[in-house]
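Minutes, project check-in

Agenda point 3 was the complex the collaborators sent over. CS summarized: two entities, 684 residues total, and the question is how they sit relative to each other. Sequences were read into the notes so everyone works from the same version.
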Amino acid sequence: MNVREEKLGDVIVLEAEGRIDSTTAPALGETLTATLGAGPKGLVLDLRLLEYISSAGFRILLVAAKRAEEKGSQFVLCGISGKVRQLFDLGGFLDLFTTYTSKEEGVASIQ
Amino acid sequence: MQASSSEWGPVAGAPQVEIFPLTNKPSIVTSNAYILRTPFEIIIVDPGASAQQTERISVAVSDSLRERPRPVFVVLTHAHHDHSQDVEKIRLPEGTIVKRLAHDECVKILERGDRWLTVAYLYPDVEVCRAKFDLGLFPASETMQPGERTVDLGDGVSCQLRTDVLETGGGFQVPRQSVQLGTGDWLEFYHTPGHSPDHLSIWLGRHLIIGDLPFAASPGLAGLVGWNQGDLLRSLRDVLWLLDTSDIEICHPGHGKAFAAAAMKKVLGAMENDARPLVDIAVIDPERIQALKEYALELLEEAHDLFTIIAGRLMSLSHKLTLLEEAQYAEKVMASLDFEAIDRTLTGFRAFSDAFRSGQQPDLSVALKGAQVVNDIERVFAGQRESPFISASLTSRAGRLLGDFMNTVRGLCITTNVEPLDVNELVEGIVQALTATPYDPAEIREALEDDAAYLGALATRLALQPKFHRVKFDVGPSPRPVAVSVDQERVCDAIASLLESITGAGIKHVRIQTRVDRDHVEVQIASEEPLHAEMFGARKLNLYDRLLAVNSGGLRLRDDGGAITVNLLLPAA
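CS then shared the predicted structure for the full assembly.
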């Protein structure tokens, strides 16, 4: 899995590409923790290029959402579509996150 | 009917007596038969009602008589048709002297060809056995004075008859009549009514032939004409006392295999508990048998649907967990319910009801089989009631469905919790309950620090997604508040089941309206898309009509110019 970071004003955008599974989730978890540790106004996780997410993946996203809340940062997801959307639908996970269709909308919602 | 392979064996405690048990898989078609043989006489207990069994009795007894001629005694534990039908059909060598003994009431029942007390009314087109008996035990017209006398049975055959009364430790008296065998052993008879008024239990050596006492409180048998709860409880008390205080080792029931005395005590103890609540139960008459049969067929079909949904949910959960890389947990989920056992049980009932349609079984056997299937499902399903992965609304609906049937078969009333409610609030509440998220949405966030807790919360979430979340419901517009007198849970069960059928057929938009009729308040389920009667199946509609009728309601399909609506009729409060 590849993660690309982009800074748009006070908002950090992380673009995840590939699979978030039990092998890759810990590394992404560390990246999210480190990013949120710097106390940005918001963090947008762009999942447009994501192919798969496992239960471990949902867990690190939930942990990140919780950490963001504690830090007073906003944590939003965007670009959820296709098969990944179906995986979110399985357990009603979309209800647990703030989601936007595109990165631009996500960033705009924070700024 | 399956007969076991039997052979002569010793009777412990009576060295010169042998026993030849002919046992069958339990059914109401025929009873077991037992043949006792001494050098001086042969005793056939309960010939039964199967040509195959009667032939085996004829062969076994005739072979013995050819070795050594001696009188034959036919003894009945009671007059029920499945025990008595073939009394006169046993073929024996010419010149064999046959004498018949039973309870005096049994003798009279058979003499008058009583279709009720022989329960011949359960079986289509059978002739009641009208055999003449030579000795009636425990005659009501005679005081049971303790003593011993010789009874002339005719044809040069006499027997020594002893009457006495046993005092039990609890201060009860148990009358006993005993007939002496040629060996000097006493064949002891105890009047054990309850299952029927003429029921006897027979003790010889360390063997007790106990007739149908072990099944007397069974659903579908309790309530037969002649059944009596008070008598049954007294008989159970007496026989339990006998088993406690005697050297009886083995008990031979009227149906099925023999029990060790200790196991029989457990069976009778459980029977006592089952019999106690059976106060003023409905009599099992032909009308009720017909209704029970229909009910059993409807119920098992609905149970099949319901357990298919439950199994489907768990399979879907397992699939979702596997998709999310939790295959190990998925296996655990699948192992938590014995799908195969439930499927086997329901498939077995289907095979049985198919065989029933070919006319081989009396109507009551469908209800009895239904009760047995429900018991089996209850046993498999018992551990699942608290499962976090099956919605409580499904498990409690299954529980009510099975429980209502068992209460009905037992002859008890279905217990409902009727209360006055505004029909509009009722319908809105039901739709809200059916579309609500049945888990705590915040639970998974609280469980992130702990692996097991997270997995549990994840699985619950995956398992309990609202089942009607893709369906649009239009409720109302509501007329003025209208009070109905209903059991909310049962109305909800009916609506949930109907909606499952509708949405299962692909309908995505459901309209529910209430309407006040002259006699009833109607809850009308309709859709823009066409509804068909076939979506539900006649048995489902009949089942919920039956269950709503318990509280003076009903279910009707109405065809308004091609557009079908489903109407629940609820009684106004």
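Noted in discussion: Chain B touches chain A through 17 residues (CB under 8 Å).
Follow-up: revisit at the next meeting once the mutant set is ready.
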